[in-house]
Amino acid sequence: MLFYATRTLKPKLTLPVLLAAALVLSACASEQAKNAPGGIYDPHEEVNRANHELNKSLDKHLVDPLSQGWGNATNGGAREVVANFSSHLSLPNDVINSVLQGNLDDALQNTGRFAFNTVVGFAGLFDPAKDLGWTRVDTDFGETLHVWGAAEGPYVELPFYGPSTSRDTVGIAVDLVLDPFFVVVRGPETYIGAVAYVFDAMGNRYDFDATVDSILHESADSYAQSRSIYLQNRRYELGMTAEDLYLDSGLDPYSDPYEDF
Amino acid sequence: MTRRGFLGAVSALALIAILPRGAFALSDAQAKSLVDSVVKDINKVISSGKPLSSMIRDFERIFTKYADVPIIARSALGADARRASSAQLNAYTKAFQGYIARKYGKRFEEFVGGRIEVKDARKVKSFHEVRTTAYLKGQSPFAVNFLVSDKSGRAKFFDMIIEGISLRLSEKEEIGAMLDRRKGDIDMLTQDLKKAG
């Protein structure tokens, strides 16, 4: 759930292919209107569970040990610098997606943030823009597809990456090839973003060790637990209102229990 | 939301809480003032500087005092609650309460240096949603919403939702999986819950 090595994908011809795939997938997904808000639609559970086991053992044998090493070798301040830098490099991609979503306010905020932190924040290693109220508006192509009306589609657990949906999977792929930093910068520097991402992910794995362990290695069914948490959080991020979240998912427990008594 | 923020929000599932007495129909203001006192209690624990074991005890006290534990426990059990006898349900609820206190209470250390601020309240269908923001060290602020109802006879919180992640729904998933593993045996689940968390 922590890496996407797929940043190394070749950006050439893949974009049109992915966009076409996006349209096809979202068309399929909308036919399967089964996934009512709050529900779980997981027709590929068997494959997903196999990927989950792979991800779990990757975490246990590779990601967690490496992250512990990284965490022990750094302090919180250093990890925050890495987090700032990684997030900074994602801003151009955020801006593009905000524009595609027709959200110019967010695009402007992220642009201002990028300019300010590039200069005053030493190429984004620090985050003085935050103090001006220019926090990052984190978005992605999965959200853009949502804004464009694509349905969420089936739940997916991707190998190496973790929980997603079919819509978000297309989003991830498109973000990889759309990312201006990746497209514009040439030479070995192209991979700075990927390297920063990997170290930031290790820092997070270290800083949130207890949380990740409790979900991945201590819960009775870590697959179901990750799925539930991912879908709840993702739907919230995409702006589902409290009514959608609380009521359509049968979230009012009083609608039945006390009447039973 | 960043992955960091997301993980932070998940770890904050540990910040549970609740509310004292509200008379007849609960008002927004009442719901809010109840969450105010809950948050005050939690902030006090966070800033107490006590050792973890006593933070866990404090947390358990806050949870049992203010949360509608029976409804949370029952809803985590889901439809299986219908076939349980009331003795079974009582034993299960008690075990569930200890499990929650240990599981989330032991995470309180992570919140040292942080605080929660209550924003506002509004009615959603039959209950009230009180919105708060959590500020933890080294993390972006995130939303923590309390769902408050007085259907138990007293105003209490029956769910806490962090960046969209419901404590109750997450535990429903977990308890459901534990029950499946024990082939639906509620008594065995209760026994195991006493040690879990």
Description:
The complex is a heterodimer of chains A (261) and B (197). Helices cover 62% and strands 3% of the residues of chain A. Chain A is mainly alpha-helical and 261 residues long. Chain A is built from 12 helices and 2 strands. A two-stranded antiparallel sheet of chain A has the order 1-2. Chain A has one domain. In chain A, a hairpin with a 3-residue loop joins β1 and β2. Chain B is an alpha+beta fold. Chain B has a single domain, classed as Tgt2/MlaC (Nuclear Transport Factor 2, Chain: A), CATH 3.10.450.710. Helix content of chain B is 49%, strand content 18%. A 5-stranded antiparallel β-sheet of chain B has the order 1-2-3-4-5. The longest helix of chain B has 21 residues. About 6% of the residues of chain B have low confidence. Chains A and B meet through α3, α8, α9, α10 and α11 of A and α1, α4, β3, β4 and β5 of B.
